[in-house]
Amino acid sequence: MKMARENAKDIIAMGFDLNKTFIFHDFDFMGKCPSFYQNIIRIQKCVTFNQAKGIFGFTDSDPIGKIGFPAVQAAPCLSTCFPFIFGDKKVNCLIPCAIDQDPYFRMTRDVCPRLGFPKPALIHSTFFPALQGAKSKMSASELNSAIFLTDTPKKIKDKINKHAFSGGKPTLEEHRAKGGDPDIDVPFQLLQFFLEDDARLEEIRVAYTKGELLSGEMKKIAIETLQPIVAEHQARRKDVTDQVLDEFLSLRKLTC
């Protein structure tokens, strides 16, 4: 619960409007809103064990908690889980998620018409790259695998300079002659997410590909782009107190 609350504070700090946003935690919400649990049971009745095994790769040795969880993940797609917001209206649902969550909602799209609800729609987001490149994974236990929202400007600079995988060539002469590869260059990939100016991003890509921009210069641009973004987030997050969080978690009518 503590980690969930801390994550929720980071979400709120992104600028969500209290009057239009309700945040919930499954453990807490299920005890406050019976319709949430009722919809979970309805979904569970629509999916057989064989179907769950085919979708998620469950085996006979998996605990029953894993088998039942997809219905918990799916239930918020049904607007009647939130009667204090939607009443008994059956409202369309849009889900922004990473591709690894797709199986849950493909299952949900099959179930919803059987329960009289519209199928949810999905927007698939792209994963941030790990600092060490495509062959590695970001991990909270590996502090140098990612830029964290708690990192100081110095920490961001050190991480990118020391650990960010470069698409540059081994020597200055070779890089000038052949150019770098932005497709595998982690600092450039970070810029694809965080640099707002698309024209400037294209200039950087072309210059790097031609060898006019060096790996160190690419890292410098990434550092100078990320440092103010993270610092601004940290400043906003300081204003998200436990009281503010509890307001977002409270059951209430929204002004949608």
From TrEMBL:
Gene name in the database record: CSON013554
Protein name: Tryptophan--tRNA ligase, cytoplasmic
Enzyme class, broadest EC rank: ligase
Protein biosynthesis listed as a keyword: yes
Pfam families registered for this protein in UniProt: tRNA-synt_1b
Classification of source organism: Eukaryota, Metazoa, Ecdysozoa, Arthropoda, Hexapoda
GO molecular function: ATP binding; tryptophan-tRNA ligase activity
InterPro entries hit by this protein: aa-tRNA-synth_Ic (IPR002305), Rossmann-like_a/b/a_fold (IPR014729), Trp-tRNA-ligase (IPR002306)
The EC number(s) this enzyme carries: 6.1.1.2
Similarity field: Belongs to the class-I aminoacyl-tRNA synthetase family.
One CC-aspect GO term: cytoplasm
Keyword Nucleotide-binding: yes
UniProt keyword annotations, A-Z: Aminoacyl-tRNA synthetase, ATP-binding, Ligase, Nucleotide-binding, Protein biosynthesis
Biological process terms in GO annotation: tryptophanyl-tRNA aminoacylation
CDD domains, alphabetized: TrpRS_core
NCBIfam families noted in UniProt: trpS
